Structures are given as structure tokens and as C-alpha cells.
Here is the input.
Amino acid sequence: MSELGITVKKAEQFSDWYTQVILKSELADYAPVKGCIVFRADSYAIWEKIQDFFNKKIKETGHKNVYFPIFIPESFLRKEAEHFEGFVPECAWVTIGGSSELEERLALRPTSETVMYSMFKKWIRGWRDLPIKLNQWCNIIRWETKATKPFLRTREFLWQEGHTAHATKDEADKEVMAILNIYKDLIESQLAIPVLVGMKTENEKFAGALYTTTLEALMPDGKALQLGTSHNLGQNFSKVFEITFIGEDEEEHYVWQTSWGVSTRLIGAAVMVHGDDRGLVLPPRIAACQVVIVPIPYKNVGREIILDKAREVLEKLQDRGISATFDDREEYTPGWKFNHWEVKGVPVRIEIGPRDVKKGQVTTVRRDTLEKVAVKDEKLADTIIEMLEEIQSNLFSRAKEALSKNTTEVETYSGFKEVLSKKGGFIKACWCSESTCEEKIKEETGATIRLIPFRKEKVFSDCIYCGKDADQVVLFAKAY
Amino acid sequence: MSELGITVKKAEQFSDWYTQVILKSELADYAPVKGCIVFRADSYAIWEKIQDFFNKKIKETGHKNVYFPIFIPESFLRKEAEHFEGFVPECAWVTIGGSSELEERLALRPTSETVMYSMFKKWIRGWRDLPIKLNQWCNIIRWETKATKPFLRTREFLWQEGHTAHATKDEADKEVMAILNIYKDLIESQLAIPVLVGMKTENEKFAGALYTTTLEALMPDGKALQLGTSHNLGQNFSKVFEITFIGEDEEEHYVWQTSWGVSTRLIGAAVMVHGDDRGLVLPPRIAACQVVIVPIPYKNVGREIILDKAREVLEKLQDRGISATFDDREEYTPGWKFNHWEVKGVPVRIEIGPRDVKKGQVTTVRRDTLEKVAVKDEKLADTIIEMLEEIQSNLFSRAKEALSKNTTEVETYSGFKEVLSKKGGFIKACWCSESTCEEKIKEETGATIRLIPFRKEKVFSDCIYCGKDADQVVLFAKAY
Here is the structure.
């Protein structure tokens, strides 16, 4: 295999495989600044698809996009104690502007609660001003000291962050769940990644939240990856930022708030979950290019006829809303092109050779199964549309099967440790709800409680750690 | 007029008027960090319209969106001497990451040439890799020391920056002009602002460019505002960043590059140009809300009939792709609502009262002319679509007339100074092409050469300053 191809196996060297796929598919590249990446055209295009889907959903439900400054004065971060402790260790600080030292150093936003809520205080007077439902797409800075990994953990990444204020806790609860459901829809229907949803424990919740809901996916190396969170902030921030309103009862009340976000990490998750030994495998709904057409001229016999047919095919597909590319570059061989587009994960390849022309057909190759099928010209567009849908649902089913296969129920701590070391994945176990047990397990095994499922299951053993009565079933895993 | 309304006249206190309009229309608010603003929902919605229009145009012409890091190592900025001098005085510097002092301080991008081109060097090997045509939408940091002004000059703003690399100067020249034409189309057809296009002088060109082309508009206070620039960077950056390619001739060559950008400044320009004493006046094509429907119940007689009719009207308009809002809030009076939506610049207001119901009509009020017209129900959608088009073109014509009225031809320096102090605007004058004359004029009057028009005009006098032979006609103005 040429340098263009992936030189390690996904099942054997997962981490190297991931890096190679990202670099060779040209999704991203390492930036000259340590811990940062460049989002190249193909990954940014996925991000744009995510934006389009999510923007539509949140605008339909009355949210509006805005943009707040990247700069957050240190004193703002200090206002909410837990929040400060959670984020300050990884802030990047601006200390000099132009040629002058700043009086107060400015953090580059690790998240925007504090800067946004200082404005909410100003904008909210009475119940007529509520709810406020805002969202912003922006860059986020977290000065990671752990090893960074493209899309999963970098010092700068892109995300959206939603921030809302409501008159009642009930409204805020509903908002948290409404957004979590949009995230689930986005991740499952578009990225074809099945997720588990539930609550975070007190230990794992967002710094400053009342409670945190989460979406967790399973990566092929057996580690969990948190793909999004939706928090009910309660009145924690409204109390420190003094965000009050005069209610219909003419009394003053603190608002109830939520915040929620997903990031470019989603791109990394899709790479990990769907990719194979040949490279990227993109779900059709997030692929900027869904179909690539490669002409296979044979000894220049009928070359023009083949190219004409390819152009016709291109037009036919584009007319039906399929995003297709015709790779008519003369300087590369068909074999080179097959490899190139396979690494890039394009869902369907269409080959057109002399034999296809003669038979009134094209040859299609599915990226997910590598299955090769001849399709008659007159059925082409319909067949391709169907095929793209099949690929989308096949990728989701495969991932769902992997998730279910790698979710193990255990009743004992020794069983827990064995599963964790041999197989990984999600481990379903019973827990007494004591933080100390949770912390000990983390210390001893590296696994954390990823979530407390919304769908309660019947307790089937004592607490996995202390052996006392358990009161709930939770999901553990090692996590990114 | 209530506190909600604008309390100063545009013609009398332009600067205060501008600030009031921006704050009271809720386009933006001052952020807690000095020199920064919050882009509230209504201004961000305009930015999204600009993004949609521009993205479509650049993608059609083969450009791709990407995202590069905000961090630029100081040594990168130092590589191109002019560029360094141009930007370093207004950089914000990150010196601390987490709890450690950085070894090399990092600038927050004032523009991204250097960080992008360090990657271009890596990505470009041979002629097959060219052209590269990238664009990014991002935040930009320039630590202004002059007084800031919402949208026009702030320490953080949003923009797009395009960066391309080509095999020949000719291709780069064509790219510069292609983009300039897209900008002209965007600004004139969408924002309804007429612009003059031309070249910058050597003194005024971009720091590091071979030449700069520009789009300049006239603001109602007689000052010019630069709305966009498109630069041919020549081989200045490719030489310092060693971006070479092996050509079809098998020789090594430096690439030719362009860069170009427009920013959220465009929003400020639209406010200045179209607004009036009642507030914002938005061109329909950039208005998030094009039509607002206000019910006018009379003593609660037939209240439900009026609301039903309003809902029907809303649906009818939305079905035709018009973005309409039904203001059915009971807690505000019709008069309050008229004022509210006028300040916000919504192009058309539809009033529905008992008389309108009886007569099978609605009452429309155009925001640009305040003209009130009854429209029969059966003609409603068609009439509104027409009306929105008329408003769009009326705003453009009015601005074009103002531009032409405020462009004055002068033959003498005393005439020049008189026009500048009494009337402002663009001053067309002949120039000998010597930088010293240009600098002296700037020093003595504050006016600069905004552009050398592409459409050459016949020289009609000696150099306005030195009296020697002039070789071209240029446009001077005081500028923001």
C-alpha cells in the first residue's frame, strides 16, 4: 500500500490508526502552536453540517444566535466558587494589550457563563423579559496539560454553547431535556453514533451546575466518550450575578438557568466509530461529498464517451440533491483515485469504464461494505439515494451492535475489574450512591460513573464496591 | 417620545444617534470588557445572512471553509517585516497558559496570514496542489487604542478572511478581482450600500501586500468607511514562508497569494447609511424579521376575529417565504409595539383593526417612507413581496443619490480644504502620484486617498497639492 494509505490496523494500534486517518484523510493537521490543530476543509464541512442541523432545530424552538466576547475578566470567573476551581487551572491568560500590561488579566473563554450572565443581569427586569434563550458558535480555549488528541482534546476547539434563563425550575428542567433530545437526534440520526443518556453524579457534574445530563458514546478501544452535556444551573449563577426579575406576583425572584454544548469532538467520535483499516468512513448525512465518480478509460478507447457519461451521471445526481464530485484529473490513475477517496471516506464510489458504457450501467462501490454492484443507468439516482440511506442506517446499526456487545453487567468488584481490563466498554453495576465508593473505584481502576440512566433499572446486587445496599444501577467506563 | 425611542436627530448629533440606535434597537450592547461589544440576536442574524450569501458565492467558485488557530507565535509575525510593523502594535498577547509562563508569547490573531502560510508551505509540493482557495469565519483581536465604536472599531470583531495560493501572478490578479466583485455584489445587492471600488495607494495598502483593492462607502457624516479589501500579496509571504511548488516545467517556483476580508463592520455601515430619527431601517434582504403584524383590538370588540385574521396573514406570508412575526403580546399596547418595531427597523408593519377586518384588508406601513397603504386581503402576499423589493431598491437609490451629491470635484487645494471642512464626502482631485503630496495632505487636513478608481478618468488639473503635472484622478476623504 502506498504512503497515501493507512499503514496500521484499527484493531491493533487504535491510537496510531486514529492519528493516521485524520492526517491522511486531510481532516485536520497539527498546527504550529502546541496542542492546537487546523480544521481543514473536510472536517470543517462536517462541522457546517452539524451547525445547519442544530441551528434549524434550536431556531424552531425559539433560540437565537448571538456572540459574546472571548475575554473574561479574572474577577468574573472568581464569582462562582466551583466554576472558578473547575476552569481556572486550564485558562490561557492575556496580560498584555498592545504595549501595555493590563490592569486585570483576561482569560480566554473556557466557557461563557460568567460573561453572558453579567449581561443577563442588565437585560432582565420583569417576567416579560423571560425566557431568554441564546446560543453561540465560537472558539473555546482550555490550556490542557494532558496529552492532546485531534478533535478530542486540544487547547482550542469549536463548539456551540446555549444559555437560557427562565422564571421557574420546571421550565429550566424542560429546556435541559429538550436540548438533550436535540443532541441525541443530531448524534444518532446524522453522525450515526448511538448514545446513552442520563445524569452525571455529583462528582462528575459541571462546575457550578445543579445537575448535568450527558450523552455518552462508546469508542472501539472500549473507552467512553462524552459527546454533549445539558446542565440545569439552578439559581447558582443567578444568585452570584444577581439576575432577578419581578414576577407576575410583583415579587423579586432569581432566574433559573441552563447551559449546554456540543463541540468539534463530535467529528473525532465519528472518525473513531465508523473508520476502518482503509481510512475514514463517513455517514452520508455529514459527508460533504457523498459520491465520487471515477472514469476508467481503457487505452484511450472511447475516452470521450466515458467522460461524457460521467458528466451526465454527475448532473443527474446533483439534480436530485446528492452532493457528487467528478474526479476528472488526468494526472492520477484510477487506482490512485480509489485509494484517495477511500481514505477520505466518501460513502459511494461510481466507476465508469468501457464495459459500463456498453452495458448502459455504472459500477457502484459502497464504502461501508466495499460491496460492488452494477446499476442500470435508468435506475441510477433512485438507487444511489437508497444506497446512501442504507449506508447511513448500516453504520448506525453496526455501532449500536458494538455498543450493546460491549456493555456488560457485573455483580462483583472482581468481575468489574476483570471486564474493565480485558474488554472495557460500559459496565452496568449497582451502586449505593456514596461518593466515597465512586471515588475509590476511580482511584483503583480508572473507571468513572459515566451516567445514571434516565431509564431506571431494577437493582440486581449490592453496591459493587462497599457491599452495602445499592439503590441504583449506573454505567461505569474508562473515559477519554 | 418614550425612553424606548431615539432622543437625538441623526442630522444633528450623528455619533450619539448611532450609539442610541444600536443600543435601543438591541443590535448590540457594550460588553464588560473595555472596547468589546456583545453581538445580540438581531445583529448576529444580519451576520448570518451575510455569511449565507457569501458562503454560497465562494463555494460556487471553488473556495472551501476551514479553521486555523487563534494563536500566532510572535516569531511568525516577525517573519514579514512590514506585516510585523503593521500589526504588532495592536496585538493582545497570551503570556500564561494554566499556571505556567509561556516560553514564547502568543498573539491572538489580528489576521491569519502567518499561521496559515506556515501550513501552506507543508501542503504545497507541486502544481497539482494549486490553486489553494481557503476561507475562514472567525473572531479577530486588535487592541485598539483609539476610541472604539460598536461594529466599526472594537477590540474583538468577527470577519471572514480568504487566503489563496496560485501558480501565476495572473491567476492571483483574477482572484483578487473575482472576490472584490463578490463583495460589491454583497454590499450593494444585500446591504443596499453603494460602494466605490479601486486601488489603495502604496501608503494605504495592506501591510505586506503587493497591492490592495478596496471598497469604500460614504457615511452620512461625510466620512468614508472602508468596507472590504482584497489583496494581491505577490510573493512577499511565499518568499519568507518558503512556499514553493514544482511547476509543470519541473522547476521550483514561489506561489502567488491573495488575501481578502469583510467584517461585522458591514452591520455598522448599514445602520449609519439607512437609519433615521426613529431608529434602524433595515434593508429587507438582511432583515431577520421582514414584516411584523400588530393587531389593534378596539375595546375588545371582535378581538378573536382580529387575532384569527392576524394568524392567517402570518401563515400566508410565511408560506411565500417572507419572514414575518406576529406580535400578539397582550401586555403591550399597539402604540408601544409600533415604536418598538420601528426602532428595530423592521421593513414593513401590518396593522389589523376592526375596520380592516370589515373591509377585507390590512393596513401596511413601510419603514423607509412611513407610507401607510391599505391592501386587500386577496392581494396581500404579492403586494408585500413587491413592497419589500421596492424598499430594498429605494434604500439603495437614496444612498446612491447621497453618494453622488457628496462627491465633489476640486481643482485647487483651497477648494479642497473648503469642501472638506464644509461638506466632507469624497473629493475627486488630480494627483502627481508622489507619496509626499499624499502625506502632506493627510497631515494638513486629515484626509487620505481612499482609492484610485479602476475606471480611469481624464486628468483635469495639476496636482492638487504641489501644482506639478498630475497623472491620475483619485478620491480623497476623511475616513473612519
